[in-house]
Amino acid sequence: MLRFTALQWIIMIPVYSVLRNAEPALGVPTENLSVCEYGMYRNGSFGCVNCDCFRPGTSIPLGKITALNIDYDGVLPCDAFSGQCKCYGEHTGRACDQCAPLTFNDTSGVAGGPLGRCMLCNCEREASTNDTCDAVTGQCTCRNTNIFGRTCDMCRKGFCSHPLCEPCENVVAAALSAAYPAVLNATLNIFRGFYFTMARGYFA
Q1: How far apart are CA 188 and CA 169, in angstroms?
Q2: Where are the beta strands (DSSP E) in the chain?
Q3: Of 35, 92, 86, which is closest to residue 64 (Cα–Cα)?
Q4: How sure is the predictor about 107, in pLDDT bands with cuts at 50, 70 and 90?
Q5: Could you tell me the domains of the chain?
Q6: In this structure, what are the phi and psi dihedrals at residue 40, rounded to the nearest 5 degrees?
Q7: How far apart are CA 121 and CA 111, in angstroms?
Q8: How far is CA 167 from the centre of its chain?
Q9: Which of 36, 78, 112, 153: CA 20 to 30 A from 142?
């Protein structure tokens, strides 16, 4: 059992009083200085700071399912020590506020998802120059000016046969040219049959 002298008690009582009434660090529970409050993480000498997870790119906590996680307005937690938020879909970064390669930040809703959600480029492989797209608009780079659409999936008016998208008259002419020998042979066969039939009837 520890025993203190009167002088030690006189010194310790004011120190204890100061420590007892001291304010804890922001966001740090008094009962456990190694763990931050829900929705916060320990950031070195800064103490406990908010996770600040990017809402459209962060998965909502288990048991908080809504139609879209963007509808959830509660606290989004992160790893208590690294601060890493739990990213949803194609989102990356500590706060899930960045898009992975071959995706774009759909701020206008052109891909049909919630605003601000990272969506796949989905460029038409045969009609675009590569698989990447504009990081904001999601526009793929089409192989030629006759092709259009965000994913390069359509031919402009007057052009046919996607993904080549050539002038329609050229496509029709090529089709007729390819079919002409077969049509000609079929026609000749009809006339040959008719001729031989008539010849048999005449000489019978």
Answers
A1: 27
A2: 40-42, 48-50, 91-92, 98-99, 103-106, 117-120, 128-133, 140-142, 147-148, 154-155, 159-160, 166-167
A3: 86
A4: confident
A5: 33-99 (no CATH), 121-181 (2.10.25.10)
A6: -135, 165
A7: 9
A8: 35
A9: 112
Confidence of residue 23 (pLDDT cuts 50, 70, 90): very low
CA distance 51 to 131: 33
Tokens at 63, concatenated? 């048991």
Residue 198 CB-half CA count within 13 A: 6
What is the spatial distance between Cα 70 and Cα 116, in angstroms, rounded to a whole number?
10
Compute the half-sphere exposure of residue 185: CA atoms within 13 Å on the CB side of its CA.
Answer: 5
User: In the numeric block, which tokens belong to residue 175?
Assistant: 């089709």
Residues 59-86: tens digit of each pLDDT? 887 666 554 445 567 888 999 999 999 9
The two tokens of residue 30 are 């008094």
Amino acid at 11: I
Q: Is the CA virtual torsion 80, 81, 83, 88 positive or negative? A: negative
